[in-house]
Design a protein that fits this description.
about 220 residues, mainly beta, 5-stranded antiparallel β-sheet, globular, 13 strands, 3 helices, 6-stranded antiparallel β-sheet, about 10% helix
Length: about 220
């Protein structure tokens, strides 16, 4: 039984496993080319489709910088402002099936285009009074809304999220075209506002049971063993 979601009969585990040295099949490669997708540091592929030219004051300017922020400067080199919003395509495939635990300071609105995947959210800003550990949530994104699958979902800033690809249908092997979504970040995304979950933070936030079930979703360079 899953310690994250007791309604699941088994612990969360990878359905597909990364194969970075393998080439994508022609159908997926065609989509990568058509959408100008490139590898994302989180895993999977992405392409920025919009960066609002309207600038807003940087709401994070006085907040502590993450010790392991993915970048130390912004795309415009001006830390006083942010684009009002940015949007990307984000794509997981059977060869690159995971988006490892990371967080953004900004709010992220996700919209499904095709495929199925599972999200795991570590609510780092919601600590249990009893255990002193973060609340963990998981849900499936997909087209079967009658079964509770989501077409649209929001992850607020400051929360760690991870994603992994699921089969096109429960009980049937394979994902024909992967998981394709759009993400809109408000205010606009900057790698200076982004960081990966380290092993130390992971252990601080989660119970030993949750750590055991989720450690495979830590980035390979997170310092995890």
């Amino acid at each position: 039984m899953s310690k994250i979601d007791p309604s699941l009969p088994h612990p969360l585990s990878a359905i597909f496993h990364p194969s970075p040295s393998s080439t994508e099949p022609p159908r997926i490669q065609s989509l990568l080319t058509s959408l100008s997708l490139e590898p994302h540091p989180e895993g999977g592929y992405f392409h920025e489709t919009d960066r609002d030219p309207f600038l807003v004051p940087n709401p994070f300017k006085d907040s502590p910088a993450a010790a392991n922020a993915t970048a130390t400067s912004t795309s415009s080199k001006d830390d006083n402002t942010r684009s009002a919003s940015t949007s990307i395509y984000y794509y997981l495939t059977p060869k690159t099936p995971m988006g490892y635990f990371h967080r953004n300071k900004g709010r992220t609105i996700h919209t499904l285009h095709k495929g199925r995947g599972r999200y795991v959210i570590i609510h780092a800003d919601e600590m249990s009074a009893q255990e002193g550990k973060a609340r963990v949530e998981t849900f499936v994104v997909g087209q079967d809304v009658a079964k509770g699958e989501r077409l649209q979902w929001v992850v607020e800033g400051g929360k760690f999220k991870a994603t992994f690809l699921l089969e096109d249908e429960d009980g049937k092997e394979g994902s024909r075209e992967g998981l394709l979504i759009s993400e809109t970040v408000v205010p606009g995304f900057e790698f200076a506002d982004h960081d990966f979950c380290t092993k130390e933070v992971f252990e601080e936030l989660l119970t030993p049971e949750h750590q055991a079930e989720l450690k495979w979703l830590l980035h390979p360079n997170s310092g995890s063993k």
